[in-house]
Amino acid sequence: MTAGDPRTGADAVTTAGAASAPQSAIDAIIAAFGDHRRDDYFAGFAADATFVFPTNELRLESRAEYEAEWERWEREDGFRVLRCASTRRRLQLLGDDIAVFSHDVETALADGDGEMVSRERETIVVQRREGVWLGVHEHLSPHPAD
To answer: Which residues fall within 8 angstroms of residue 114, CB to CB, at 6 or more apart?
Structure first.
């Protein structure tokens, strides 16, 4: 992604030095999600990643569980991501192999009932595994202003 990309807010964070690799991985996840590139989005997560969403009663315990849920949303509801914008971004490096990214995200979605926009806060934890930064946890919460 290039600086100034409204989907990722890339210009909101300086990604110099050690922070550039995990930030690039996170930016790729966000861009793939915002473009509804499902395969690219899930490729950014480890197989054992966990996911917590306000719309799901239980934590999803693996990437495969989330992929199955996503496919169900598409099949039953006509789910489609139209775009997303990331703001108020913060990346925290926790050692050499773990980073925590938090931001506000506004997502335009479509389903069988039409289009809607959701505003949430999101945390993505990434870990370097065999030289590759992968998401290992994603947590979405409703934005308190909504």
So the answer is: none
Q: Which of 7, 21, 1 is nearest to 107 (CA)?
A: 7
Q: Using alpha carbons, list the distances in angstroms from residue 120 to 55, 76, 84, 104, 107.
A: 12, 23, 11, 6, 8
pLDDT, tens digit (0-9, with 9 covering 90-100), for 68-84 = 999 999 999 999 999 99
Using DSSP's 3-state secondary structure scheme, residue 36 falls into coil
The pTM of the full predicted model, rounded to 2 decimals, is 0.86
pLDDT digits (tens, 9 = 90+) for 117-138: 999 999 999 999 999 999 999 9
Q: Is the pLDDT of residue 14 over 80?
A: no
Separation between Cα atoms, residue 144 and residue 137, nearest integer Å: 21
From the number of C-beta atoms within 10 Å of its C-beta (0-12, 13-18, 19+), residue 135 rates as: buried
Distance separating alpha carbons of residues 146 and 106, to the nearest angstrom: 11
Q: What is the CA radius of gyration of the chain?
A: 15
Q: Which two tokens stand for residue 63?
A: 């990437």
Residue 56 CB partners (closer than 8 Å, separation 6+)? 69
